Amino acid sequence: MSSYSELIKNFEKIRAYMREFYIYGFKSRDGYRSKSARSYDDERRRMESWLGDHMGFVRTPEGKNVFISIDSRSSQHNPFYKAWKSKSFTDGDITLHFILFDILCSPAVRCSVSELMRRMDEEYLSGFETPMLLDESTVRKKLEEYCGEGLLVREREGKRVLYRRADLVGLPAESDALDFFSEVAPCGVVGSFLLDRTGLHEDVFAFKHHYITGAMDSGVLAALFSAMRSKRAVTADNFSRGARRPGRVRLVPLRVLISVQSGRQHLLAYQPATNRIKSFRVDYLSDVKLEEPTPRFDELRAELDSMQSKMWGVNPGRGSRDGQLEHVEFTVRVGLDEAYIVRRLEREKRVGHVERLDAGTYRFTADVYDTTELVPWIRTFICRISELHFSNRTVEERFRSDLEEMYRLYGVGEGET
Amino acid sequence: MIFSELYSAYYNTVARILARLLEGDATEKELQELVAAHAFGESALTILPSLKSGKWQLMRPDLTTPITHPPTMPLTGLEKRWLKAISLDPRIRLFDLRLEGLEEVEPLFTQEDYLVYDRYGDGDPFADEGYIRRFRFLRAAIREHAPITAGIVNRNGREERFRCIPVRLEYSEKDDKFRLLTAGCRFFTTVNLARLTFCERYCGEHVIRPFRRAARYESVTLRITDERNALERCMLHFAHFEKRAERLERNRYLVHIRYDSDDELELVIRVLSFGPLVEVTEPERFRKLVRERLKRQKSCGAR
Question: Quick one: CA dihedral A400, A401, A406, A412, positive or negative?
């Protein structure tokens, strides 16, 4: 039986647990039926080790519920990045790492594998009681791995292959820029890696409306960006809602749509199997593998560009191919001292138009693929909506019946005004 | 690859330990403190024991090391690509960032590869020279805890001046705006940066005490009916608050949210956006705020 370690080999397992604990946090140990009890205990212990005070628990009749609770406004650095810094390694990996970079201490120092092997043995390992035995293939593999990561450069001198450090690219002197972009840019965890290389410094920034869950999807996101940069298709596991197991999908990633009002990230991608551009939740994707470049990338992205002026959110509907659009229109009353409502309409609308009907009435209109995506926003104007017309009658009826249900829930009676 | 030991807390901590050993006369207590500061809660059980036992052959029993240089590692390809990507962000102009050696590097992503689709449209003027100058000045002042004098245009279009100690620049991704959080000033505790007309060091004789009113927190309890995926939507939407959830019955859940009382009105409309699937159960005061809006809506008719 292997002993517990706070380091992990596979990020996917912890990704699922972190999500459960952070987003929901109401399941007891027995609620994680698909996982073994030991696995649950180990993952919970790891998260406690990484996240310390952010972990909490409550006792319920079903058992102890563990949850992660973070007021992201009071946290200057995304605590979930710690999970990305927990990759396991072997004793040989870490020993070799520090010795290699000590020998190859500047880009001017170049060594062959045999020279490195000799120096490692003579200058570093021989002083230990039982010197570590590193075979040549292990060292060669590590050197190639580091060349792939961009840390080392392989050069030929006649028949000899020499390795040296990559050329120096200095860390930004301004750690403030790293502090900021590590929290607000995609794959911000990479900025956090860079910050780990800098000294401690005082934080200047705080963040409001800050969603930190996306951190867990950084690996998937980086792979999708790499695919887009090289105009490649990908295959990935897609865990759709209601499905017991993920299905393998082949996609041409076109753009990632990020919400700063829910923290959700969607991939807009062309799916050859359905011949459509569709959206996929990034947190439902895993095991992304890059495939061959696709000659249709530019054409498909241009198609998405034209569709986006008709999308309120992430749903491209059936897209521009059948041109089905739904008309949305609502009117709000605005008091004399309520100019901020007009400003709200203007700044919060993503597509569509706002027009002034008279001094106290404004109308919003839009033609979109999916009316349901606007409904939550329209509801934020409850208390002043005087007219409402959707061409999608089903959605309009539901909006109205939901409103009736809200009156009932809050005891707003017929006779009241 | 993002998930790599190259970026691990253990490698980072060992690098710091080796650097300390090279300085000479390190004590085990100091090394333990480095582990506590840079690694995880239980790392003390692994890192020093592995070094001391020779499992990781980098430290001798007498707390010296065969390593001869303070450990450094070049930037990885991933790190360079990410730096190149952020150099393309319009907000980069706020920083005096010189990234040399990245000319040939492909960015990890460009502005074409992603879109923040629900950010409000009246974000701060990040390209405005005056704004950039004030932003940089305030960053330095925060770091130096230096008192400043600043001006702001009030609602009536008049300039008002105030003195304060700048504490933080708070960025809202939704609003795409920076706000200056201040101390030592009663009336201007949070100021939109874009509304500042000027800011400069305060050189007067008045002593500004760095008091700052502590945020007043309130809590609200929501009952969620898990239809139309409301549970997940709601939990994600309110994920950035301190919160706790419990299951009531088959598809009913309670969520307790702790929030800054200054953000109450915003929270009311966010709750409304979920319609009848999210109901405020307590406190009654918050419930009343929702009820009031519904009453007014009913009087609107909504034809």
Answer: positive
Chain A residue numbers with beta carbons less than 8 Å from the beta carbon of B96 are: 174
Q: How many CB atoms lie within 10 A of CB B70?
A: 15
For A213-308, CATH number out of 2.60.40, 3.30.870, 1.10.3470, 2.30.30 equals: 2.30.30
Burial of A158 (0-12, 13-18, 19+ CB in 10 A): exposed
Interface test with B, best of A85, A93, A126 (most B CBs within 10 A): A85
CA distance B294 to A382: 7
Nearest CA in chain A to B174: A260
Residue A233 · residue A227 · CB < 8 Å: yes
Give the integer Cα–Cα distance in Å for A179 and A215.
Answer: 15
pLDDT tens, residue by residue, B219-240: 999 999 999 989 989 998 998 8
Please give the full DSSP string across A242-302, using - where no structure is assigned.
T-SS-EEEEEEEEEEEE-TTT--EEEEEEETTTTEEEEEEGGGEEEEEEEEE-TTHHHHHH
Three-class HEC string of A194-219: HHHHCCCCCCCEEEECCCCHHHHHHH
What is the structure's pLDDT at A321? 58
CATH topology of domain A74-205: Arc Repressor Mutant, subunit A (1.10.10)
For residues B19-25, give the mean pLDDT.
95
- Looking at residue A117, its pLDDT comes to 96
Alpha-carbon distance values, B227 to A84, A392, B23, B234, B251 (Å): 34, 20, 62, 11, 8
B171 at A interface, C-beta within 8 A: yes
How, if at all, do strands A385-390 and A353-358 pair? unpaired
Chain B residues 173-202 with CB within 8 Å of chain A? 173-175, 179, 181
* pLDDT tens digits for range A198-225: 877 888 999 998 988 889 999 999 999 9
**B217-300 fold:** Alpha-Beta Plaits (3.30.70)
CA distance B140 to B146: 8
At what angle are helices A91-103 and B9-23 packed, to 10 degrees?
A: 50
How large is the ipTM? 0.94
Q: Which amino acid makes up residue A345?
A: L
How many angstroms separate the Cα of B164 from the Cα of each of A150, A206, A306, B188, B193? 47, 18, 48, 8, 14
Domain A326-409 has CATH 3.30.300: no
Contact B97 A174 (CB under 8 A): yes
Cβ-Cβ contacts under 8 Å, B74 against chain A: 150-151, 165-169
| Rounded Cα–Cα distance for residues B245 and B236 (Å) | 12
Q: Per DSSP, which regions of A111-165 are E strands?
A: 152-157, 160-165
- Are the C-beta atoms of residues A368 and A374 closer than 8 Å to each other? yes
Among the four given CATH numbers 1.10.3470, 2.30.320, 2.30.30, 3.30.70, the one describing domain B129-201: 2.30.30
Q: Taking CB atoms and an 8 Å cutoff, what residues of chain B touch A82?
A: 9, 40
Closest chain A CA to residue B258? A71
Chain A residues touching B273 at Cβ < 8 A: 376-377, 379-380
Instruction: For A74-123, write each residue's pLDDT tens digit.
Output: 778 898 999 999 999 999 999 999 999 999 999 999 999 999 999 999 99
In the numeric block, which tokens belong to residue B205? 């004789």
